[in-house]
């Protein structure tokens, strides 16, 4: 595969929007609010922001350096830079993680698709118990969630198969601003509800007594998942960056957009939840069980507003999920395209087939005890395996690779775009890559093994 036949993002704004599109997803709109809700609100958010800047940005720059320098798919990029060391395996592990994430993420994205339809047709009405039962029955039913998961992978397929410039970049340029507009409209509706002030206070008044080791580690894990760090995805996208892209600046902009959207998602959810007396720590079911209640109750006197807001909310989730699944799909597509020397279209079909199969298994495992691994449904198991083990592992290997193994002058050349940039903050970045990031990630592992 020669270099010229690979696509590239055509503009700097395309680079930032596509990569931010990968970062911004269900992790921001669904996972961040419930994690913040369970871990004390504002104090968690402050720590999260600290981790994004201290670990997330250097980690992203490291993945960018690997991808842009090697200019090929993730597996080969790590093999090229890592030689015969274990670092060479990070690409394959990341690729595996990315495809597993696409499998289970499509199931949740499929639920969003269904909820979008249900809110559109008025199916989410009823009291609290009815709404909860609706979710239980739907998510554990045999056919619809599996079909929707495959549908979501197919939707992603058609964007990715169109290529980097006319598929991924174009879709991101349209979807990202749309997502932002939807968010703002819902925030206005949510914040104007009676009693919304409590929710805003919860988000912005830190109570530092709430910070303990669990909160610290929860914030760290959330930062990784949300930035798409350690799934070979940033590395794959960086292989489409041209030589003029300022890696530190792009990573900072993406981290900023990602954090901003997460906080806006909090501003969308908490004021409404507090307004109807819903507990902020209701966990993963927040958007599927709690929020329909919020929409029904909060806008009880103005049902049409509740209707519009709920339809917009689930449309927003679908859009956010799509820009992320596109990036996961691209990891596999680029790999099969270049390694098997087949067309992009066929490579995309292989990725679609594998991820659809994983998605179907995940969908069927919800509410079905016989399809479980280590006591968890396949969906929960893959979520755990990727977010808690594989992503931190790959991110750690990436930082160690760039910090200790790749010659410093190559790192410097990538960081400064062959000496054309001043190399702002290089010393800090390099120290984070060599010491701070690997050490912090090691801490997560030790904690998971209950060793600290
Ligand atoms: N960052 C995405 C989100 O917040 C999830 C993701 C993980 C995307 C890994 C790509 C790779 O939803």
Task: Give a concise summary.
The protein has 452 residues and is an all-alpha fold. The chain has a single domain (3-448), classed as Amino acid/polyamine transporter I.
Number of helices: 18
CATH topology: Amino acid/polyamine transporter I
Multimeric organization: single chain
CATH first level: which class? Mainly Alpha
User: Could you give a short account of the major beta sheet?
Assistant: 2 strands, antiparallel
Uncertain parts: none
Residue share in helices?
A: over 70%
Distance between the termini: 47 Å
- Please tell me what the overall shape is: globular
- Mean pLDDT value: 88
The structural domain count equals 1
Can you put this structure into words, describing what you see?
There is one protein chain. With about 450 residues, the protein is mainly alpha-helical. The chain has a single domain (about 5-450), classed as Amino acid/polyamine transporter I (Up-down Bundle). The chain has helices spanning about 10-25, 25-40, 40-70, 75-80, 90-120, 130-140, 145-160, 165-190, 195-205, 215-225, 235-240, 245-275, 290-300, 305-340, 345-365, 380-405, 410-415, 425-450, and strands spanning about 370-375, 375. A hairpin with a 2-residue loop joins strand 1 and strand 2. The protein is globular and about 65 Å long. The mean pLDDT is about 90. The chain binds phenylalanine. Phenylalanine binds near residues 22, 25, 101 and 324.
């Amino acid at each position: 595969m020669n270099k010229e036949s690979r696509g590239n993002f055509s503009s700097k704004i395309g680079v930032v929007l596509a990569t931010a599109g990968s970062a911004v997803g269900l992790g921001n709109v669904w996972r961040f609010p419930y994690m913040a809700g369970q871990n004390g609100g504002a104090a968690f958010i402050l720590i999260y922001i600290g981790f994004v800047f201290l670990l997330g940005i250097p980690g992203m720059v490291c993945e960018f350096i690997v991808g842009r320098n090697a200019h090929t798919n993730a597996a080969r990029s790590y093999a090229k830079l890592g030689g015969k060391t274990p670092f060479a395996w990070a690409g394959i592990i990341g690729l595996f993680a990315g495809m597993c994430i696409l499998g289970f993420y499509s199931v949740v994205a499929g639920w969003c698709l269904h909820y979008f339809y249900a809110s559109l047709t008025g199916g989410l009405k009823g009291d609290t118990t009815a709404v909860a039962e609706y979710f239980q029955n739907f998510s554990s039913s045999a056919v619809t969630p599996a079909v929707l998961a495959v549908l979501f992978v197919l939707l992603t397929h058609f964007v990715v198969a169109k290529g980097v410039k006319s598929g991924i970049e174009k879709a991101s340029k349209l979807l990202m601003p749309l997502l932002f507009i939807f968010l703002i409209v819902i925030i206005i509706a949510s914040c104007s509800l009676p009693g919304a002030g409590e929710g805003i206070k919860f988000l912005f008044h830190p109570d530092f007594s709430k910070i303990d080791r669990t909160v610290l580690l929860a914030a760290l894990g959330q930062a990784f998942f949300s930035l798409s760090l350690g799934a070979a995805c940033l590395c794959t996208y960086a292989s489409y960056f041209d030589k003029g892209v300022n890696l530190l600046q792009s990573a900072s902009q993406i981290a900023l957009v990602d954090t901003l959207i997460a906080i806006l998602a909090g501003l969308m959810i908490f004021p409404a939840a507090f307004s109807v007396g819903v507990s902020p720590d209701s966990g993963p079911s927040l958007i599927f069980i709690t929020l329909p209640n919020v929409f029904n109750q909060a806008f009880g006197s103005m049902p049409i507003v509740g209707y519009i807001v709920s339809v917009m909310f689930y449309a927003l989730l679908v859009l956010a999920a799509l820009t992320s699944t596109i990036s996961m799909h691209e990891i596999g597509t680029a790999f099969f395209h270049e390694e098997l020397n087949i067309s992009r279209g066929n490579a995309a079909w292989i990725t679609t087939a594998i991820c659809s199969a994983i998605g179907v298994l995940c969908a069927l495992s919800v509410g079905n005890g016989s399809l479980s691994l280590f006591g968890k449904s396949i969906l929960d198991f893959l979520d755990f395996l990727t977010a808690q083990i594989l992503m931190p592992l790959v991110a750690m290997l990436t930082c160690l690779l760039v910090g200790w193994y790749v010659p410093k002058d190559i790192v410097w050349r990538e960081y400064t775009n062959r000496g054309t940039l001043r190399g702002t903050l290089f010393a800090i970045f390099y120290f984070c890559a060599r010491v701070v990031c690997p050490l912090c990630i090691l801490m997560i592992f030790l904690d998971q093994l209950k060793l600290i």
